[in-house]
Write a structure and sequence with these properties.
Length: 399
């Protein structure tokens, strides 16, 4: 069986429910588990589209329709199907995703900038004819003022028309929990960023963040979110390509069912390493495959290019205390920073579950592991379990 590059990677998709399928399918094609958590929905403008209809009908030859999103393209396309544009009216779009939707509506795009942002379109927009000219700017109810202001400064008569409105969707407890357990989130607009953060907070977002374009990334960064990658081509395929590129040869660590085939395989490697390679003789503890559920115990699997290469477990052993155990990494990945990635994710999960002290024990023979523990802030403490001697016990106090 072929394992996709994003095998088992959980990615939160925040698009409106009726638009989520294309991104979900594209991610699943590469092995990811796409989790739909719609944070907005698209509605008609308060006037039902009357202003957009009137604006389009007022255009004459050499006037322009400017469309800034696929949602705006859909509204324009529906109205043009009822009443075609006057011959000679041109269409400009901000980026390739909008261009694709305009063309799907049977219309021709006359202008698209190389840089898919409002500033890029304004820089490429033609000068106003000497006889004057009109621009109908079809976009969301709430949008940046950059484009209409710059077009107006160029002398164009701009009708800034509400083509649609985005409405925040309440994210239920299941959606919030899904965000907490996911590996990444893929944002496709600034409104999806604002709405999801309003629901779960910055601290409730998955650890890795992707944006479809620079405008979306700018909204996220303004709200205190670090964006890990921005799609160079601002389309759904471009976003998926950016996610794939980010994870190529890059480890990721995530929560997984300990009963899964990969988790069981990792556990066998862990026991084999402890028992001097006697993998065939390993009889797994039944508690590892039953009754393992947050917040009392979490099992993590590390992957590179979709292949399982390590594991670790966080177990709540007392109120406010969590122990890290059952950690194993393939010798082939010891130089790729995966040990630190695993440790950091286990500590992050401990914080998420309100644990204030994390403990672990390490064989005194594993000097590199001991150095890693210390570099992560763990300090040596007295023995706290019944493990054989020649161990070193560590604890980390969390803020």
């Amino acid at each position: 069986m072929t394992i996709g590059l994003l095998h088992q990677l959980r990615v939160v998709v925040t698009r409106p429910r009726e638009q989520v399928a294309s991104l979900v399918e594209a991610l699943e094609k590469h092995g990811a588990e796409a989790v739909a958590v719609p944070s907005i929905r698209i509605e008609d403008p308060p006037d039902g589209g009357l202003a957009l209809r009137a604006g389009l009908r007022s255009l004459r030859a050499d006037d322009w329709v400017v469309i800034t999103s696929p949602n705006g393209a859909a509204r324009v396309g529906a109205l043009v199907a009822e009443s075609p544009l006057t011959a000679g009216v041109k269409i400009a779009v901000v980026g390739p995703g909008t261009k694709a939707r305009v063309e799907a509506e049977g219309l021709t795009v006359d202008l698209m900038p190389d840089e898919a942002i409002a500033e890029g379109l304004a820089a490429r927009f033609p000068a106003r004819p000497s006889a004057g000219g009109r621009v109908v700017l079809a976009r969301a109810e709430v949008a940046r003022e950059t484009l209409p202001l710059q077009l107006a400064l160029m002398g164009w008569n701009v009708d800034d028309v509400v083509a649609y409105r985005t409405v925040r969707v309440d994210v239920d407890d299941e959606g919030k929990a899904a965000c907490g357990l996911a590996d990444a989130v893929a944002f496709t607009s600034g409104s999806t960023v604002e709405s999801l953060i309003a629901a779960v907070g910055v601290e409730g977002l998955p650890p890795t963040v992707f944006a479809i374009g620079p405008a979306t990334a700018a909204v996220a960064e303004k709200l205190g979110v670090t964006v890990d990658a921005v799609a160079p081509e601002h389309t759904i395929p471009g976003l998926v390509d950016a996610i794939r590129e980010h994870y190529t040869n890059r480890p990721y660590v995530h929560v997984e069912d300990p009963a899964s085939a990969d988790a069981q395989w990792c556990l066998r490697q862990y026991h084999a390493a402890r028992d001097d390679g006697a993998e065939d003789a390993v009889d797994l503890d039944p508690s590892l495959t039953t009754d393992v559920s947050p917040p009392n115990e979490l099992f993590l699997v590390a992957r590179i290019d979709g292949v399982a290469v390590g594991c670790g477990c966080l177990e709540r052993t007392a109120p406010g205390t969590g122990d890290i155990n059952r950690t194993w990494l393939s010798p082939e990945v010891h130089e790729q920073g995966l040990g630190r990635a695993m440790l950091d994710r286990l500590v992050a999960e401990a914080r998420r579950f309100g644990i204030v002290q994390v403990r672990l024990e390490t064989s005194q023979k594993l000097t590199e592991a001991i150095d890693l523990d210390r570099s992560a802030g763990f300090v040596e403490v007295a023995e706290f379990d019944n493990e054989p001697q020649e161990r070193t016990w560590f604890a980390l106090e969390l803020d």
